[in-house]
Amino acid sequence: KDVGAQLAEEKREEVKEMLRANFKRVEEAERSLEEFGKLLSPLMGERFRKIRFQTYCLEKKIEMRLYKKHNFSLYVITSSDLIEKESFEMKVKEIIANGATVIQLREKTLPLRVFLKIALLMRKIVEPPVLFIINDRVDIAIACQADGVHIGQEDMPLGMARQILGEHKIIGVSTHSVKQAQQAEKEGADYIAIGPIFSTSSKPKTGPPKGTQIISQVKEFIKIPLVAIGGINLDNIDKTLEAGADGIAVIKAVFQGADVGLATKRLSKKIRDTNQKCFLQ
């Protein structure tokens, strides 16, 4: 074993921890200044809020360089029932061409062989740096050589999925609380999804919307990327990202209209514009 490489990695971890701890100190101080500023003047409070958002943006950029360099900013969830069979390949290509950074294939009812056939087709379409993730099914993810798998609280345990997939594959976990998010990170998740942030009909059993405050709360306790999900659209992306989300997961925001490419393009632009605010304010 290369002892030098091990020491370098340990040093890298120390740097990550030091940066993260100091960012948190700065953000806590800025939050206090924002609250105090509001007492003196709404304008002053707003200025401190913008400064705090600038710090969040800087922290995200640095974390992207220090941790796994995966871009979860626009995470599109699709399935065969959302796209007509004859235009499936074309529409997935449009979504990718217009800014999606992750494509997840979620098939809850299809027989294994049909699911696998679609997954193999998707694997040919989705090329790096865009990530291809399979929902729930570790076996399908292996068979189609997907980049990883996304599992829920009732699916295969994360540790078992990691043992099967290996360290090189991405594993994401659906969470609905700070405790679940912390547990997912502890068990080795590469990212977590948290939600529902806003009201959604896509997954009605996940409970009432938690609001953007859950994002800020979870970000206080985890280091891995956080993808916000649930009712996110053009009108609330900015609030979601300002709360600290590293990315947004969408279904209806892309598929409810006829032009999936245009919908994706608008979402991608809104994400870029929101993330760039910190350098323009």
From TrEMBL:
EC number of this enzyme: 2.5.1.3
Catalytic reactions on record: 4-methyl-5-(2-phosphooxyethyl)-thiazole + 4-amino-2-methyl-5-(diphosphooxymethyl)pyrimidine + H(+) = thiamine phosphate + diphosphate; 2-(2-carboxy-4-methylthiazol-5-yl)ethyl phosphate + 4-amino-2-methyl-5-(diphosphooxymethyl)pyrimidine + 2 H(+) = thiamine phosphate + CO2 + diphosphate; 2-[(2R,5Z)-2-carboxy-4-methylthiazol-5(2H)-ylidene]ethyl phosphate + 4-amino-2-methyl-5-(diphosphooxymethyl)pyrimidine + 2 H(+) = thiamine phosphate + CO2 + diphosphate
MF (Gene Ontology): metal ion binding; thiamine-phosphate diphosphorylase activity
Keyword set, alphabetical order: Magnesium, Metal-binding, Thiamine biosynthesis, Transferase
Enzyme class: transferase
Any one biological process term the GO annotation gives: thiamine diphosphate biosynthetic process
Pfam families given in the database record: ThiD2, TMP-TENI
GO cellular component: cytoplasm
All copies of domain ThiD2, residue ranges: 2-61
Residue span, Thiamine phosphate synthase/TenI domain: 74-254
Known pathway: Cofactor biosynthesis; thiamine diphosphate biosynthesis; thiamine phosphate from 4-amino-2-methyl-5-diphosphomethylpyrimidine and 4-methyl-5-(2-phosphoethyl)-thiazole: step 1/1
CDD domains per UniProt: TMP_TenI
PANTHER family associated with the record: THIAMINE BIOSYNTHETIC BIFUNCTIONAL ENZYME, THIAMINE-PHOSPHATE PYROPHOSPHORYLASE
UniProt-recorded name of the protein: thiamine phosphate synthase
